[in-house]
Amino acid sequence: MGEDPFRVAGTTYLSRLLVGTGKFASHQVMRDALIASGADIVTVALRRVDLSRAGEGDVLDFVPAGMTLLPNTSGALDAAEALRLARLGRAATGTGLVKLEVTPDPRTLAPDPIETLRAAELMVADGFTVLPYCSADPVLARRLEEAGCATVMPLGSWIGSNRGLRTRDAIEAIVETAGIPVVVDAGLGAPSDAAEAMEIGADAVLVNTAIAISADPVAMARAFALATLAGRLARLAGRARAGGATEASASSPLTGF
Amino acid sequence: MGEDPFRVAGTTYLSRLLVGTGKFASHQVMRDALIASGADIVTVALRRVDLSRAGEGDVLDFVPAGMTLLPNTSGALDAAEALRLARLGRAATGTGLVKLEVTPDPRTLAPDPIETLRAAELMVADGFTVLPYCSADPVLARRLEEAGCATVMPLGSWIGSNRGLRTRDAIEAIVETAGIPVVVDAGLGAPSDAAEAMEIGADAVLVNTAIAISADPVAMARAFALATLAGRLARLAGRARAGGATEASASSPLTGF
Amino acid sequence: MGEDPFRVAGTTYLSRLLVGTGKFASHQVMRDALIASGADIVTVALRRVDLSRAGEGDVLDFVPAGMTLLPNTSGALDAAEALRLARLGRAATGTGLVKLEVTPDPRTLAPDPIETLRAAELMVADGFTVLPYCSADPVLARRLEEAGCATVMPLGSWIGSNRGLRTRDAIEAIVETAGIPVVVDAGLGAPSDAAEAMEIGADAVLVNTAIAISADPVAMARAFALATLAGRLARLAGRARAGGATEASASSPLTGF
Amino acid sequence: MGEDPFRVAGTTYLSRLLVGTGKFASHQVMRDALIASGADIVTVALRRVDLSRAGEGDVLDFVPAGMTLLPNTSGALDAAEALRLARLGRAATGTGLVKLEVTPDPRTLAPDPIETLRAAELMVADGFTVLPYCSADPVLARRLEEAGCATVMPLGSWIGSNRGLRTRDAIEAIVETAGIPVVVDAGLGAPSDAAEAMEIGADAVLVNTAIAISADPVAMARAFALATLAGRLARLAGRARAGGATEASASSPLTGF
Q1: Which residues contact B203 (CB under 8 A, 6 or more apart)?
Q2: How many CB pairs under 8 A join A and D?
Q3: From 3.50.30.10, 3.10.20.310, 3.20.20.70, 3.90.1070.10, which CATH number describes the D6-68+131-237 domain?
Q4: Of D169, D172, D245, the CB nearest to B169
């Protein structure tokens, strides 16, 4: 797949599966799953990182070498808090990449469109490379692109819900006109969901909960990696059109004998 | 995956993706796609085979060596015709394997439950190893198993329709109690469909049209192979449960700092 | 709606909502819900009827006068048992109408296609007017029609599951060619499900559980009645076509001013 | 239904179906459909209204007497344009009600979350009673409520697409916490869609295209009216829970005889 790189802000990655680090039973299981996922980009909640690095066993110590760290602002309730977290993270980790999350609704953890756009503008102005978690909203996606974001990351369904790709039409609309990569983030609960997102044209997917809380996170990480690649291949190959509700088409046209 | 073999009638296969041979633009493209699919079992319509083998360029000449041929009775309108086709095929190909298809409805090519069961009984009595294409019907599946079939092959959606897994509840019900392999056959239009079928417990899937009519059948064959494996891995790993419609669950539980 | 009668076996009914009598909290609640439903046809399990009529409080005593009783063979495990039940019912109730049910699978209560067809043939030969509960299977539906059934009653989803119309493609295929009324029976869990079944061309729907176990069965019965009529009106009016996944069409074309 | 009023900004309405006036074949057909719909609230694009009222045959002349006019800002590309339209409309029609629409994306006509909120704030400050068309976004809905809007009107699917309720989870989330009425607006293509929106707790629905472009708009209007009422009744009655994918529950529990 060297001929099909995934580019974000000028950097090229091989894998189109991004993974998260929350909810794993242990740091070691997380590490094994990250390796199995083949991911190049790993997101970590800034609040969970021991930024002083004084202690032992910090989550960052278990992220395999060579993976690109993508700090996120999980838990931020407004733009100001997100910016503060991002700056602390940059100071501690040295990376200007940030996954922007502003999620004031405690039930759905749905992203706040207003504060997310505001934070994106502030972060871009401050030199960050911004990957915003956002509603599956084509107008907002356009505005985030215009604000200088490196990707848009529209939701498939609520964070951690494993409900799959419940925003399909909107993702298709975003994909049609986006000039930056579209990464479907949140809610993908099974490899089939990741494949579906890729088939409709997402450039990448981000998965955390479905891997982390599986009975076998390592196998599930590998499953998502394969499915993401499958969906990408299918997108490039040109998916066959579906027929009408009452139309079949013989696979084996008969020639008689 | 040597530890996860797919067994049919006492024989072990590595791949859980079965493929068909209809609708390809050329025999050579078909051959390349079959190889890319990694399939162990390849189905061929008996009517399309030049059983006399007198001519050149027969489809069988393009099936890669080492693949198991699964002749099918595509086009049969009743049990008697299916049996006649199966016997001709056995005489010509030497295999007792048969994919039983009785599809009298020209619109949907839906399988006939009555004639399919009758044909299965006749074929089993005649020594065939029978893999019947059937409705996604848990009672019929049970009866086909009791009749001595080697698998059941319930439909996902109409043959060639690419409409995906539109019989999900019924497939789940069949999987729960079947004592023989369940192979979802027909209608799977994208790799995500194959992954989904495997995630809910199908033992294998059969795909033809979605590969054959893709703009790039070789890439699409590989995509289905990866997705089928992904779905199987996810099934074994234990899929995470989905949450309620309005419930999120933070991927990154906060610990503060 | 006098200009849109629902005909079964030569008799004309006004309502296209058929209702069942199981699972109600009391006979009186059932009676009130039946009245609210506006149904003309009411199905009763023969096993629940006190055929001797010796006792008091039999369910039949609570069926409003003027409604057509449709005895069903609920619980029958094969054709012979269904026929025996039907005959007992006819002797006791005097009607030759029978809702044929043969459901040997205790999990799904899915109808047995083989025994259902056999029972239908036996019952027709014995003079019954047969309304068979069946799989959503277009070939079986055709065979039941050829056997002389008065309707076909394909399932929407498993009995009592309230999962809705999960067999939509198959119902559409049955509707396209059926020469007898198509009544979607089982699984319709909300008025929207009943409306959807009618919109795709069902002639009628049968609802029991969703009404009976609602907190307010009388209101729910009325809701199903309205939705069934709504779906029918929409079918006759010609439903508007849906657009593509990323296409809008302004409701208010602009003329400027 | 006098005991179940629909209140918007202190006014009580009987019908929970709001209708639009675009796309009808003629003003007379529109008028007949509006009457058949039983709607109390009718939306009209300000740009289509001949505000000078100098001409004849203006759409307003065909809105039945007694219906509440809800001018909308259809076609506005930003908050300033929406406000200007609203003010012109108020001057011409005398009503302070406004359906706010800001839809800069010509493909999807998706509402702009940023400009919609901005316009809502400006309009509320200017004394309007604001009913905003918006994304199905629970955080935005909350913000619009906090800005003083009289309702929120989240989309079911793209305007005029007839794709139905493709934002179900988000609508459920909005319904759970909204302190103002939730009116599902846009994309409802069949009466079953309207019923479904009401069943999950919407307070009302707005339908235009599906009625206007039906072959029989009058019948379709009546169908939507019935389905909306059916969905509301079902919501109040308490919808029955759906069972698992492989679980049935006999409607007719057997007592033997």
Answers
A1: B6, B16, B151, B181, B182, B183
A2: 79
A3: 3.20.20.70
A4: D245
CB atoms within 10 A of CB B120: 28
Chain mean position to CA B37: 13
| D173 in A contact zone (CB under 8 Å) | yes
Three-state secondary structure call for residue C72: strand
Question: Does the model's ipTM exceed the 0.85 cut?
Answer: yes
Question: Could you give phi then psi for residue D13, rounded to 5 degrees?
Answer: -120, 155
Paired with A13 in beta bridges are: A6
Distances (CA, A) of A200 to A39, A169, B98: 21, 9, 36
Each residue of A48-82: pLDDT tens digit? 665 555 554 688 889 999 999 999 999 999 999 99
Q: Does B216 contact C at CB distance below 8 Å?
A: no
Residue D133: beta bridge partners?
Answer: D153
B residues 140..159 contacting A (CB < 8 A): 158-159
- For chain A, the domains span 6-237
SS3 assignment, position C209? helix
Distance CA B217, CA B238 (A): 31
Q: CATH for B15-237?
A: 3.20.20.70
Nearest to B58 by CA among B68, B50, B66: B50
- Residue of C99, C118, C143, C232 marked active site: C99
D190/C contact by beta carbon, under 8 A: yes
Q: Does A251 have pLDDT greater than 80?
A: no
What is the pLDDT confidence band of residue C245, given thresholds at 50, 70 and 90?
confident
CA of D221 to nearest chain B CA: how many angstroms apart?
30
Active site residue B99: yes
pLDDT, tens digit, 9 for 90 and up, residues C115-174: 999 999 999 999 999 999 999 999 999 999 999 999 999 999 999 899 999 999 999 999
Per-residue pLDDT tens over the stretch C43-75: 999 876 655 555 546 888 899 999 999 999 999
From residue A236, alpha-carbon distances to A229, B19, B31, B165 in Å are 11, 20, 20, 22
Q: Which residues have C-beta within 8 Å of that of residue A84, sequence separation ≥ 6?
A: none
Q: How far is C105 from chain B (nearest CA, A)?
A: 7
CB atoms within 10 A of CB B1: 12
pLDDT for the residue B75: 92
Give me the CATH topology for the region C6-237: TIM Barrel (3.20.20)
